[in-house]
Amino acid sequence: MKLKYIPFLFLSILLIQCSSPQKLLNKGKYDKAYEAALKRLEKDKADRKDKTVLIKALNEILKTDLAKANVQADSDDIFEAEKGYMAYVDIEEKIKAAMPYAVNEFDNSLEFVVDQKEQLRVNLKEGFLDIGFKDLEEYDRTERKVHAQDAYEMFRRGARYVEPDLEMRELLESTLEKATINYMVEADAFFIEFAVDGIFRDIERASRGFDRIYFERYNIEDIDCYIEIDFDDVDFGIDANDRTRSYTERILVERNVTIDSSGNEIDNSIYEDVSGTVTTITERKLAYLQADTDIRSYSKNCELRDQRFDAELVSEIEFYQLSGDDRAIPNEFKNTRQEQHVRDDQMIEDLIIMIYEEFLDYYFDQ
Question: Are 310 and 287 in the same domain?
Answer without folding.
Answer: yes
